[in-house]
Structure formats: structure tokens, C-alpha cells
User: Fold this.
Amino acid sequence: MTIVYHFANPDMITFIHLTAFIILTVAGYQLKKRNQVFEIPFLFFISGIIGMIWFIVSFLIPAYMFTTPPTDAELQFTNLYSFFWHNLVPSLILIVIFGITNIILGLKNRENYGIWILVSGIFYITFMFLDILLNSNLIFEIIIFIGMLMSSLFFLYFSIRFKNSYLIIFSVIFLFSLILPAIGLNLYIPIY
Assistant:
């Protein structure tokens, strides 16, 4: 059996996420430059940079395809490789970007801006771990989608209450990136 490694074609959601990460970086930079009551705004900046770096690195991680039927050992290896690089690592990076960052910011800024960003981070981590641990089942997928949607809506509410246009745009774009695949619109964009 031969395994052919190739680089993945990006889909529309990937470019929507890149746009969201760029806007998050700009929001963090803008908040860092302003002298506001909001504590540790550089975490938005760092989260945006991490997201953009992952966007670039994700294209360099080869995908695989079989040219002949695989043996059991080869199939196990490729399944483990795929789970690790295409499911677990991206999920953990997103947990850091949207979960842990939001919890830290929520704890530091709870008195001035309420608990909405904290709740957003808790929801995001909870439902991302459920997504990693549970098998694909339609009922679980619907529950996870609703949880991620709630996390995004909490962050959008925080952004509106915070009155930061970059965070509002980021929230809307990220919300859009959740809804788009749910209604079946995730187009692949050929780059070569």
C-alpha cells in the first residue's frame, strides 16, 4: 500500500477564521494602545497572533490519501495521525484562543464588564471538550452546536456592552463561521 501525502485545500471557513483572527489582533492592539479600564487587553492580540500562525501552519500539515487498500496497521496510523493533527491540535488551539483567554479576561474584568466574557469562555471550553471526546452523533452535534452558538452570543453581548467595534466585528464573523457549515455552506477554494 502507498500513502500519498498532500497539502490540504482551504475551505471558506478557514479564510473566514483568518479574517476573524486579523480583526482580533487589531482589536487587541487598539485596546493595548488605549489607556482604558479594561485589564490585560494584550491577550486579544496574542490570541489573534496564535490564530494566524495556526492558520499558516495548518496548510503545512500534510493530509493523506490511499492509492491502494490499507492494511490494519497503516489504517490505525493514519487514523491516529488524522485525529491528532486535524482534530485534537486545532481544538486545543481554539480552546486556548477562545476559552482560556476569555476566562482570564472575564476574571480580571468582572467588576467593570460583567461575567459575559467569562461565561463565553466556560461555554467554549466545555463544548469543545465535548466535541473532542464524544463520537459524531447527530444529537451530540446539535448540543455542541447550540453550546458553541451560546458562547459566541455571550461574547457578542460582551463586545456590544464593551462598545468596541473591532470586537463586535470579530464576534459577528465568528458567529457567521459557526452558522455557515451548519446550513451546509462550506465551499472548498482550490489554490493549486
Observations:
- The longest strand covers residues 3-7.
- The two ends are 26 Å apart (CA to CA).
- The chain has one domain: 3-181.
